[in-house]
Amino acid sequence: SKTISKCYVQVTGMTCASCVANIERNLRREDGIHSILVALMAGKAEVRYNPAVIHPAAIAELIRELGFGATVMEDCGEGDGILELVVRGMTCASCVHKIESTLMKTNGVLYCSVALATNKAHIKYDPEAIGPRDVIQVIKDLGFTTSLVKKDRSASHLDHKQEIRQWKRSFVVSLVFCIPVMGLMIYMMVMDSQLSEAHAHHNMSSEEMEALHSSMVLEYQLLPGLSVMNFLSFLLCVPVQVFGGWHFYIQASRALRHNTANMDVLVVLATSIAFLYSFVILLVAMAEKAKVNPVTFFDTPPMLFVFISLGRWLEHVAKGKTSEALARLISLQATEATIVTLGPDNVLLSEEQVDVELVQRGDIVKVVPGGKFPVDGRVIEGHSMVDESLITGEAMPVTKKPGNTVIAGSINQNGSLLISATHVGADTTLSQIVKLVEEAQTSKAPIQQFADKLSGYFVPFIVAVSVVTLFAWIIIGFVDFEIVEKYFLGYNKSISAAEVIIRFAFQASITVLCIACPCSLGLA
């Protein structure tokens, strides 16, 4: 339909399929949006919308409100050229009107918008009728200075460096505190197994067991109800909960603010419940001056954060590698071109170094040995060998002589060439290949769309299953304690049966929260 437009939005901060489902579900509800496809690996959203109702900047803002980074990617529509300029020398609204009205009267200019506050001009033009340098000259003739808005050609959004650094830091912080926690845990498990053996062989009473248990170094009470073990575990758990889990808490709060739940919500629920439960139990034991130390879960958050942040770190490394080929393709694009003016018999009159975006169809471009071809063109003078391997796969250099075509991004080897530009900007072969690869990354198989949709409902379902698990094991434990005793490894006879049941039920419910990962659906 003529009323439907398409735009691409670069999205950062997505971690798994539930993030994809979150964005797609929320944006489909908005007026004016007909369809949206979000690609996790490419970090990109393709949106079809009604320009009369909504515009790309508003779409990007909607994605940002969901807690993700979003910037509109410039897409040259059906053969149109787009020019972003910085215009200096404007003083008031009449200057803006003068530029806009003059450009709109110029043959080939399809659309023009000038913002006084930002000193920027957005111009859409027909490359068949006018070129970017012609547009700049029109503005200069009106008495204003103008230059191109510098674009990021580094493809930095594809290498995931920022995310890799962020999750690596989170993993290292969690690991530093997790190793001592694991040491304490292993020590306690060894001591508990020795106590169980002592109980089995000497048939001790529960009072004797309690006395032997409290004689252990880590079970020594600093204050009534506060053992060395619990105090050290608490001190090691707090930094991980705050610093190691910082990113999880931010993402989870953003998700909950928009009535959605993702993997981060599961992780935050599991670690926060374990931490708060342990902290409250500790306070109650200290208030009651308990002789037997309570069983806490301070070891759960550090261990969980270590494995999840390690997974996230490795995941972003893998994503960066997946997009490596596309990043290499983008890096092939030349940034500058040497435009020459020829006299009779192809005599060189002058040459000028310009930004590659300013090359127009029909321009004569000079390419020296070792230089990249900035645009597609036809050789008009010179003989050379050209390396086209990165674009065509041709291993051997290809001979070029007058009349032959050259491809943007290929490398000139041993002779200077003069070429006439035939395809520029988004129309070059290299730009089209990049566009096709990006579109291939954005498209989804039906099974992938189903998995993304499913992961949107996955988290609430898992939370419900976790709650059911908690109450089911509490009921089973009080009805038949032997079942809990059978499955609860390292059961300590000095702890009351009720506490053992609660501890086991709690462990089972937290395990359900921790192991259920919607990310695995999307990755599979």
UniProtKB/TrEMBL annotation:
Residues 5-71, 81-147 form the HMA domain. The gene is Atp7a_0. It comes from Malurus elegans. It is a multi-pass membrane protein. This is P-type Cu(+) transporter. CDD domains: HMA. Keywords: ATP-binding, Copper, Copper transport, Ion transport, Magnesium, Membrane, Metal-binding, Nucleotide-binding, Repeat, Translocase, Transmembrane, Transmembrane helix, Transport. The chain crosses the membrane at residues 171-190, 222-244, 265-287, 457-479, 500-523. GO terms for biological process: copper ion export; copper ion import; intracellular copper ion homeostasis. One of its GO terms (cellular component) is trans-Golgi network. The lineage of its organism: Eukaryota, Metazoa, Chordata, Craniata, Vertebrata. PANTHER family: ATP7, ISOFORM B, COPPER-TRANSPORTING ATPASE 1.
